[in-house]
Every structure is written in structure tokens, then in C-alpha cells.
Automatic annotation (TrEMBL):
Alphabetic keyword roster: Cell membrane, Membrane, Sugar transport, Transmembrane, Transmembrane helix, Transport
Pfam families: BPD_transp_1
One cellular component (GO) term of this entry: plasma membrane
Family: Belongs to the binding-protein-dependent transport system permease family.
PANTHER family: BLL4140 PROTEIN (PTHR43227), DIACETYLCHITOBIOSE UPTAKE SYSTEM PERMEASE PROTEIN DASB (PTHR43227:SF8)
Protein name: Multiple sugar transport system permease protein
Domain of life: Bacteria
CDD domains given in the database record: TM_PBP2
Species per Swiss-Prot/TrEMBL record: Asanoa hainanensis
Membrane topology per record: Multi-pass membrane protein
Cellular location(s): Cell membrane
């Protein structure tokens, strides 16, 4: 009598190398365009150019450790730019997200008409490149051609100097708000459209007004979208460059170190000091990462905390 084997066959591996082949292009792009540039920037930040020999000498690179970082962290112009950048973000991010949330809530109201046209009109500034938007607003600020000043002067009202020392900060912040509201509004509006309508109906049956529904139903339910747009907006404001760089030739109130990225650009391409610029870039990147983590942690605790 033969005994039948009851052992199970080993499971066959399926897929083989297919997953690795599919992931390979993304890995190659990640390494080539992110990890390698970051590593090379860190490498440059640890070195410096020195002139050796007599006479005109010879320019050579040497390892200097953290010397470039000490120079960056003690550079008053760079630190002033960091403070100015943080102030810029403190103004732009709340105003931009506040307007985006307000527009999204208004467009999600049942009584609003022409929502598609209105959405396109609000989103359109985001489609304009930052340099072009800065040029457009720059001409609107320039006293000799500003239509805003012309309208105010025609009705005998005082026309402000948009490019003056006390106003240029808010003029640049206005460009950032104008260009960023549309994208955030679309994200928040999309999140609102994903909320089941039955929740609104139940709130209306309980006697809630549209304002109460917005404050007590809609906003809490789109908290994840608010956190995401908040983080993206903070990162964008920490990378502000094109707006002040474009406005700078129009105003004497914007130095070449107005924000950290302008200082980095000056060091790298004007002063040809690529090593100091690399160190300043690493400091800015680490600061952006740290601030993003802190803000994300705080917002997550408030937006996603469980009911106790």
C-alpha cells in the first residue's frame, strides 16, 4: 500500500523582479535629482577656496570643516533675511489660507451661482508664473505707470508709495497672497465636495444655519486638507525669491540680502563663493525641515486628536 504525501508544496514566488523594474525609474530619478545634489551641496559646504603661493598665487580648494557654517550663522545680513522671511510667512500664510478657506466655503454654499466661472477666476492667478506676476504687480506699484495711483489721484485721495521702505514688505506679501489663494482654494473646495450631503441635511434639520454648518461641520471635517495646505504654504514662503528679486530693480528699499535665497544667489553667482552659498543652502534646508516638522506635529495634534 502506498502512502500519499500530505505535505504542501512550497508557495511559488510571483512577480520575480517585476516590482524592482517598475520602481527602478523612480529610484533613479530620486537619486539623480535629489540625493546626489544634496550630497554634493553638503560636500561643497565643507570646503573653501584658498589662494596659495606667492604673487598672484593659485586658487585651490581645501577642506575647512564647519567654518562656512560658522560664517553663515554669524552673518548679520543673512540672519536679518531669515527674520524678514519669517515675518513674510507670518503675514502671507494666515491671510492666504484664510481667503482660500473663505472662498471655498462660499463656493460650497448652495445659493451661490456661477461657481465654475468663479472657481476659474480665483484659480487663474496661480497659473501665472511667479516672475510674470511679480512684473505685473511691479508695474502696478511703479509710481510713474501705476493705475492704482492714477485712480486715487483722480479722486483727490493720497496715493501710497507701494515701493517705499515702510510699504514694500506688504507689497511683496500681496503678490504672494494673490498667487497662492487659488491653489489652496481648489484643494479645500475639493475636500468640501467629498463630504456627504446627508451631514448637511441633518444639521439643517437640527436648525443649524449655513454659518454654523461651516464652522461646526465643514471646517472640522476638512482639517486634513487644511494641515496639508498649511505645510505646503509654509514651505513655499520659506523659499520666497522671485517676488523680491523682480521688484528689487524698481525699489531702493530691497537689498540683495532681503531674504536668505537672495543672499545665497548673491554669494554663488555674484561673489563666486559657491562654498558659502552651499553652507547657507544647507542651513536654510535644515531650518525649513525643522519648522515643517514642528508645525506638522502641532497641527496634527489639534486636528486629529481623538475625542476624550
Amino acid at each position: 500500500m502506498t502512502t500519499l504525501s500530505t505535505g504542501r508544496r512550497p508557495a511559488r514566488r510571483r512577480g520575480g523582479s517585476a516590482p524592482f523594474v517598475l520602481v527602478a525609474p523612480a529610484v533613479v530619478l530620486l537619486v539623480t535629482f535629489l540625493l546626489v545634489p544634496i550630497g554634493y551641496t553638503v560636500y561643497l559646504s565643507l570646503r573653501a577656496a584658498r589662494v596659495t603661493g606667492g604673487g598672484l598665487g593659485r586658487r585651490v580648494e581645501q577642506f575647512v570643516g564647519l567654518e562656512n557654517y560658522r560664517g553663515v550663522l554669524t552673518d548679520s545680513a543673512y540672519l536679518d533675511g531669515v527674520v524678514r522671511m519669517l515675518g513674510y510667512g507670518a503675514v502671507v500664510v494666515p491671510v492666504m489660507l484664510g481667503l482660500a478657506l473663505l472662498f471655498a466655503l462660499l463656493l460650497d454654499t448652495p445659493r451661490v451661482r456661477l461657481t465654475r466661472t468663479t472657481r476659474i477666476g480665483i484659480f487663474l492667478p496661480y497659473a501665472v508664473p511667479g516672475v510674470i506676476a511679480s512684473l505685473l504687480w511691479g508695474f502696478m506699484y511703479l509710481p510713474s505707470v501705476s493705475p492704482i495711483r492714477a485712480v486715487l489721484e483722480s479722486v483727490n485721495l493720497p496715493a501710497p508709495d507701494f515701493l517705499g521702505p515702510s510699504t514694500v514688505f506688504f507689497s511683496i506679501a500681496n503678490i504672494g497672497v494673490w498667487g497662492g489663494v487659488g491653489f489652496n482654494m481648489i484643494v479645500l473646495f475639493t475636500a468640501l465636495r467629498g463630504i456627504p450631503g446627508e451631514m448637511y441635511d441633518a444639521a439643517r434639520v437640527d436648525g443649524a444655519s449655513e454659518i454654523q454648518i461651516a464652522l461646526r461641520v465643514k471646517i472640522p471635517l476638512i482639517a486634513p486638507a487644511l494641515v496639508m495646505t498649511g505645510i505646503f504654504s509654509i514651505i513655499a514662503t520659506l523659499q520666497v525669491f522671485s517676488e523680491p528679486a523682480v521688484i528689487q530693480p524698481l525699489s531702493d528699499s530691497i537689498p540683495s540680502t532681503w531674504v536668505p535665497l537672495m543672499t545665497i544667489y548673491r554669494d554663488a553667482f555674484v561673489n563666486s563663493d559657491i562654498h558659502t552659498a552651499a553652507a547657507a543652502s544647507v542651513v536654510l534646508a535644515l531650518g525649513t525641515l525643522a519648522l515643517s516638522i514642528v508645525v506638522l506635529t502641532v497641527l496634527q495634534r489639534r486636528a486629529f486628536r481623538s475625542d476624550q
